[in-house]
Specification:
Elements: E1 7-10, E2 13-16, H1 27-31, E3 34-44, E4 49-53, H2 55-68, H3 77-91, E5 97-105, E6 118-126, E7 136-144, H4 161-173, E8 178-182, E9 188-191, E10 195-200, E11 203-206, H5 217-228, E12 235-236, H6 241-245, E13 249-254, E14 258-265, E15 268-269, H7 277-289, E16 301-303
Parallel strand pairs: 7-8, 7-14, 11-12
Antiparallel strand pairs: 1-2, 1-6, 3-4, 3-5, 4-16, 5-6, 8-9, 10-11, 10-13, 13-14, 14-15
Helix pairs in contact: 2-3
Bound molecules: 4'-deoxy-4'-aminopyridoxal-5'-phosphate.
Organism: Arthrobacter ginkgonis
Protein name: Branched-chain-amino-acid aminotransferase
EC number: 2.6.1.42
Length: 307
């Protein structure tokens, strides 16, 4: 069990950590049918409060994922949000957290075409930073990012993660920290758990959602922060691999990954290898946004405990 975590949530009911189980013959385990979300909550020492970041937006994507890969299950995002916040409170967690919501198909004799019955698990686990701050050394993968013609990359289907996993294993084997995958057409897509941005020729750029990417919530937050807080307009356009080599800044972002700078791509150093100015501004803004200090009008940061 994770330290300090007594309960998980199974179909809205608190269960002991050790008792959250799925049968070995369920469709999810046999055929990889399932969807999930990963989100974070941040403890503010100043406010003595825990803030959960964009929980309902994640729950909306969970519902969209269920719809796209045809899984029955709850569609009430407000109720799902309340369940997750209730789980954190039940565990009395006061510190930075990573949360998961997972929808599995729990049939007794799993068939690939099963759409239900589904079962929902949620977890909230203490978590520090995912990446360090020293900059990531990234390899462009020889694996292509899966495309919407084969698997839907825009949603969080568990089966999609084999693609990023192979790319990450390849990168690690070759001595890199992280990976970026190209689309079938050779454009920059995303990494195994994060979207990507670059600053090149003075413009902040990121691939459009039609370039085989997960429609990242951190990506969306960064776009909003860049536009409203920094007054930058962002180019949402296809990006070539060699544009990254000659970029002034490259950073990746995700709920777990946060906003992290890329020091090199295929051993080509980006800028001087340290986090560039735009990256640093966006990192600072993101850290403030997750505890409701910036972009407060968006109501992204939900206080977990009564004030
Ligand atoms: N791409 C992939 C493949 C991911 O798994 C993630 C993490 N959920 C992201 C991008 C970033 O998405 P988000 O900002 O919504 O966490």
């Amino acid at each position: 069990a994770a330290p300090g975590v007594r309960y998980l949530l199974h179909d809205g009911e608190l269960v002991d950590y050790a008792d959250a189980r799925l049968h070995v013959l369920s469709t999810t385990l046999k055929y990889g049918v399932g969807v999930f979300e990963g989100f974070r909550a941040y403890w503010s020492e100043d406010d003595q409060q825990l803030y959960a970041f964009r929980v309902e937006d994640h729950m909306k994507r969970l519902v969209e994922s269920m719809k796209v890969v045809e899984i029955e299950g709850p569609r009430d995002t407000a109720a799902l949000t309340e369940q997750l916040l209730g789980l954190i409170r039940a565990n009395g967690l006061r510190g930075n957290l990573h949360m998961r919501a997972q929808v599995f198909v729990d049939s007794s004799d799993g068939k690939p075409e099963d759409t239900g019955p589904s079962t929902v698990f949620m977890a909230a686990i203490p978590m520090g930073n995912y990446f360090g701050t020293s900059g990531l050394h990234v390899q462009i993968s020889s694996w292509a990012r899966l495309s919407d013609r084969s698997m839907p990359p825009r949603v969080k289907s568990i089966a999609n993660y084999q693609n990023g996993r192979l790319a990450l294993l390849e990168a690690r084997r070759n001595g890199y920290d992280a990976t970026l995958l190209l689309t079938e057409n050779g454009h920059v897509a995303e990494g195994a758990g994060y979207n990507v941005f670059m600053v090149r020729q003075g413009r902040l750029c990121t691939p459009p959602v039609t370039e085989s990417i997960l429609e990242g919530i951190t990506r969306d937050s960064v776009l909003h922060l860049a536009r409203t807080e920094l007054g930058i307009d962002v180019d949402i356009r296809p990006i070539d691999r060699t544009e990254l080599y000659s970029a002034d800044e490259v950073f990746v972002c995700g709920s777990a990954a946060e906003v992290n700078h890329v020091a090199s791509v295929d051993r080509t150093v980006i800028g001087d290898g340290t986090a560039g100015e735009t990256t640093r501004h966006l990192q600072r803004l993101y850290r403030q946004a997750v505890i409701g200090r910036v972009a407060a009008d968006r109501n992204w940061a939900t206080p977990v405990y009564p004030g």
